Amino acid sequence: MSLPPVLHPAGSTPAAVPYKRIATEEAWCPAEMLDLYRGVLEAGTLDDPGFQTMFSFYLNSDSTRATEIRDYLVDIGDQRLKHMDERGIDMQILSLTSPGVQVFEPELATSFAALSNDMLAEAVAKHPTRFAGLAAVAPQQPDRAAAELERSVRKLGLKGAVINSHTFGEYLDDPKYWPILEAAEALEVPIYLHPQVPPPGLIGPLLERGLDGAIFGFAVETGMHMLRIMIAGVFDRFPRLQFVLGHGGEALPFWLYRLDYMHRAGVRSNRYESMRPVDRTISEYMRENVSITSSGVAWGPAITFCQQVLGSDRVMYAMDYPYQHGAEEVSGSDQFDMSDADKLKFFQTNAERLFKLSPA
Amino acid sequence: MSLPPVLHPAGSTPAAVPYKRIATEEAWCPAEMLDLYRGVLEAGTLDDPGFQTMFSFYLNSDSTRATEIRDYLVDIGDQRLKHMDERGIDMQILSLTSPGVQVFEPELATSFAALSNDMLAEAVAKHPTRFAGLAAVAPQQPDRAAAELERSVRKLGLKGAVINSHTFGEYLDDPKYWPILEAAEALEVPIYLHPQVPPPGLIGPLLERGLDGAIFGFAVETGMHMLRIMIAGVFDRFPRLQFVLGHGGEALPFWLYRLDYMHRAGVRSNRYESMRPVDRTISEYMRENVSITSSGVAWGPAITFCQQVLGSDRVMYAMDYPYQHGAEEVSGSDQFDMSDADKLKFFQTNAERLFKLSPA
Fold first, then answer.
1. How far is it, in rounded angstroms, from Cα A246 to Cα A97?
2. Residues of chain A found within 8 Å of residue B271, distances taken between Cβ atoms
3. Residue of A nearest to B260 (CA)
4. φ, ψ of residue B292 in degrees (nearest 5)
5. Using a CB-CB distance cutoff of 8 angstroms, which residues of chain A are in contact with residue B61?
6. Which residues of A touch B64 (CB under 8 A)?
7. A320 in active site
8. Distance CA A52, CA B94 (A)
9. Which residues pair with B162 in a beta bridge?
């Protein structure tokens, strides 16, 4: 066994650096949401083996990982600020942890999204230089989700939306969800497309070997979701709309060449009704409508590769707290092989521009 | 529309270079196999929407892509050699196209694998400096597959095995298939883990938007398969066994950091019965038991990234004929940003060593 004894070794606080470290994909939730998840689990009515395995673990396991995450998620006050200080994080951009409200019945989903946005705005108001937030929305009610996004941005000062991939196995390429996309474009705020566990039709062989979650299934689900959006022509309809992908862009940057080649082949061959000509190539959409973050991928080779192929304006830092929160990963990210100018963009100014953060 | 008018523009033959271009993932099949596939399709008894969509297209479409592929696949003589000459390919390592015999009932699968291996060996015997071959085997009958691999290597001179990912939704991490792996290790030949379309439990939302095949689903299926093998401890049981992955290693090189992190987290948390401690990390297995090829990824940034993180001894050239065969991709690959020494390894000597090719 070559596994180290702990996942997050006690590291010293990273050194002072000439940029703010803005962590862009940091999770939280009200304690009440975990109670609601427990209710969903116990009712046994949600046909979603991915949700069941994930929250059977996170709600019930006495492992260090699960107990730590339960504890850290629900705090958006002093404990979180202390962890940020210890790890050298200047600011967190907070979003409601996956799957957010997207497993609730529609009325509950919409009302709980609003409640959580109010709570998040309150934490931001208390610590405006340390926290910013993305709005939770309930795709189950698209028009109300659009209205909640508008309220969250205009009234609460939140900086965009988070959508935790599928909603009961449906994706944002379905035009019924487009009111949300229209609102985001009009408000000029990005949508963070965050992973969740794949739905029943996409999880079988992953689940058999524990590959459904962050290790692999998250990227399958979320990379596919982003591709569905591009292939459906969403960015032709909403050309200024901006998305954010975490986890090194869910590997889509690695695939740009093959995606362009096979998308072209698919369109030209008329093989699929659902793959028709669109205005631009996949790599063009990726470079013009998508930014990516380093959440969970504190690894220079992959992140500098993403800068190389997407441009350094589209790659941002993230930690993925509390799922991943080692101080040694922050220090390691400081050492990435990039120019000082690119490092400033990566840790600070790309996020400030995209999320329209006020200068401190 | 920014798509060029043809997929494979007429390019001039690539320039002479100081290395042999050995293409390591090149597909063929007997014409009879396409007839058998047509029979499977028409019988309607195979519960595999991926196979249905793929071969409804490839067997029936009058698109340039489908007609060309039908024509090119079944020739392992003069036409193929002419195409190789035009594209500057010195040698092809041939394998039975996906899904090979893995959709047939067991007896047919085993007997057709042997027949196709005999045909392949005959083509190699006619053109020993231009062709080498990998053996088709039928996982449906593991002991007979192991025997067929031994016959193919010892009697026919084939250089390894090709397995087209799942067999009726099952994977090589299941110990019932391990006689095949044991034979490959004992014979000191690699297994090329080639993609096929994901099985029913892993295809739903991919298929809805035409993402089931080479554009994305192939990598989901095959990357997952390789991970299942590593996580199950297959390389602890068979430490000298070597696998090959195409398509830039199905993006696993991009994921090494996250795979190691989340595998460690998964093992430590005891979340899954099917994810128990193994001897090495995912990145160690990747660097010690897996080689990758550039099939379908004629793109310097991704391929040199793979060399950087796996080592230049584990990255080989492939074209993916006839699915992808542009002369401009060969010329482009000649221009990859790597040292002359690494380029020699990439195009020639890694393949010669791994597949034990005789010097010309």
1. 13
2. 53, 57, 61, 63, 210
3. A215
4. -130, 160
5. 269-271
6. 268-269
7. yes
8. 44
9. B136, B192
Tell me the pTM.
0.98
For residue A9, the distance in angstroms to the closest alpha carbon of chain B comes to 13
Closest CA to A235 of A275, A279, A203: A279
pLDDT at position B1 is 39
Q: Which among B4, B211, B277 has the least Cβ separation from residue A227?
A: B211
Check CB contact under 8 Å for B255 and A255: no
User: Residue A206 CB: number of other CB atoms within 10 A?
Assistant: 25
Task: Give the chain B residue nearest A279 (alpha carbons).
Answer: B1
CB-based contact B209 A173, cutoff 8 Å: yes
> Are the Cβ atoms of A281 and B2 closer than 8 angstroms?
yes
- Dist. CA B13–CA B137, nearest whole Å: 35
Nearest to A209 by CA among B245, B202, B248: B202
Q: CB distance A202–B206 less than 8 Å?
A: yes
Give the list of residues 6+ apart from residue B247 with CB closer than 8 angstroms, or none. Answer: A258, B195, B218, B219, B222, B293, B295, B296, B297, B320
- Write out the H or E segment, with its range, that includes residue A87: helix A78-87
Sheet holding B91-96, edge to edge: B22-28, B91-96, B131-133
What is the DSSP secondary-structure string of B265-320?
HHHHHT--TT----SS-HHHHHHHHEEEE-TT---HHHHHHHHHHH-GGGEE----
Can you list the domains of chain A with their CATH numbers? 22-354 (3.20.20.140)
Task: Tell me what pLDDT residue B10 has.
Answer: 76
Contacts of A64 by beta carbon, 8 Å cutoff, 6+ apart: A6, A7, B268, B269
Separation of alpha carbons B215 and A261, rounded Å? 8
- Min Cα distance B250 → chain A (Å) is 9
Beta strands in B29-133 (DSSP E): 91-96, 131-133
Q: Chain B contacts of A257, Cβ < 8 Å?
A: 297-299, 302
Q: Is the dihedral of CA A136, A139, A145, A146 positive or negative?
A: positive
Confidence (pLDDT) at A1? 38
Angstrom distance (rounded) from CA B232 to CA A195: 25
Tens of each residue's pLDDT in chain A, 360 residues: 345 557 888 778 999 999 999 999 999 999 999 999 999 999 998 999 999 999 999 999 999 999 999 999 999 999 999 999 999 999 999 999 999 999 999 999 999 999 999 999 999 999 999 999 999 999 999 999 999 999 999 999 999 999 999 999 999 999 999 999 999 999 999 999 999 999 999 999 999 999 999 999 999 999 999 999 999 999 999 999 999 999 999 999 999 999 999 999 999 999 999 999 999 999 999 999 999 999 999 999 999 999 999 999 999 999 999 999 999 999 999 999 999 999 999 999 999 999 999 765
CA distances from A346 to A87, A289, A336, B245 (A): 17, 17, 10, 32
Its ipTM equals 0.97
CB contact under 8 A, B261 and A208: no
Chain B residues with CB under 8 Å of A219 CB are 255
Give me the pLDDT at residue B95, please.
98
Q: What is the pLDDT of residue B3?
A: 56
The partner residue sitting opposite B269, judged by closest CB among A65, A224, A280, is A65
Closest Cα in chain B, distance from residue A317 (Å): 15
As beta bridge partners, residue B96 has B28
Token pair 């230049």: residue: B312
Give the minimum alpha-carbon distance from B19 to chain A in angstroms, rounded to a whole number: 25
Active-site annotation holder among A173, A320, A334, A337: A320
